[in-house]
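Researcher: I'd like a structural prediction for the single chain below. Treat it as a standalone chain; there are no partners to consider.
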Amino acid sequence: MVYRSRYIIFLCQAIPWFGKHTGYERLPMFVDRLTTNTQTINVQNGILHRILGRIYSIFRGWSNRSSYQMAAELKLAIARFLQPNSISHILYLEDSLPFLDYWKKAPTNLIGTIHLPPSQWEHNRLENLGKLSSAIILYQRDLGFFESYVGKNRVHFIRYGVDTEFFCPLSTEAQSIKRILFAGHYLRNATMLHRVIVKLAKNHPDLQFDLLVPERSRNTDGLLQLFTHPSVTWHKNLSDEELRHLYQTSYLLLLPMNNCGASTAIVESLSCGLPIVTTDVGGIRDYGGADIFPIVANDDDDAMIDLVEKYLNNQDLRNEIGINCREFAEEKLSWSTIAQQHLEVYDKLL
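Model: Treating it as a single chain, here is the predicted structure.
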């Protein structure tokens, strides 16, 4: 189905450590397949963009912001002027909150996606958020909180998508050595991870743990104590194919979290049919937690260890959950489905 709605302008900022198959910045490509009029403005490096951003920062009275980000926002302002009836979508709202300073309350055809839970919002940033009139949020638990700033019925829930064609299962056959994967660092409960790995490794000397963590983020409590652990292998700077292979060949994803909105590691694991052991925080329930796969309370080490043991002792259960994870991703999280849901929200703003 092809939509013929208003012109859609995306402001997009690529996450440096994401590959070409990963990230919310994949959305414009899939929206473009369903509609006829889109434009994507990317944050770009280079001397011209730095100069443009610097000039715009002086005009707007900004300081301590990336010139490249500001150059992209200038292009957005120009595009909005040339297409006054367009829908403008800021994909990573938290990076562009000062852009809203232009308005007391922004027009409804400017929409931004909220990624971070309330614990990560400072008071002055919430004041900027209050100038927004339309928002998308990637999980439901804190929808009411953000509505209190944006406006009642002005915040729309749409899940974070995943490339289900690229991130796919390899096999449900048992691996000769069971490997458990941990990925990421932001809002992870690394101290819980440390405690759980130490106990599991003691009970299962043949168990191996793969920790995919950027090197700059390993100097934290919990991860530091695991740095020389004999059962732990560290990974960084993987290609798309290497990342996918880790998901495909792991027995479980072990991901204790302190908080989250939507998690890239969660959606990519679901798409690869990798069962997830995580904590009941943030948006976990919107991505199959407690429905598709069991979850545990945060900092409940015994419950997490018991759940891992249950999977280790029952290969059939592990495979059944993995199949359910993949089906959930195909039905709920494929980018084609998510793109259509975005277009339906845009139509509400017309």
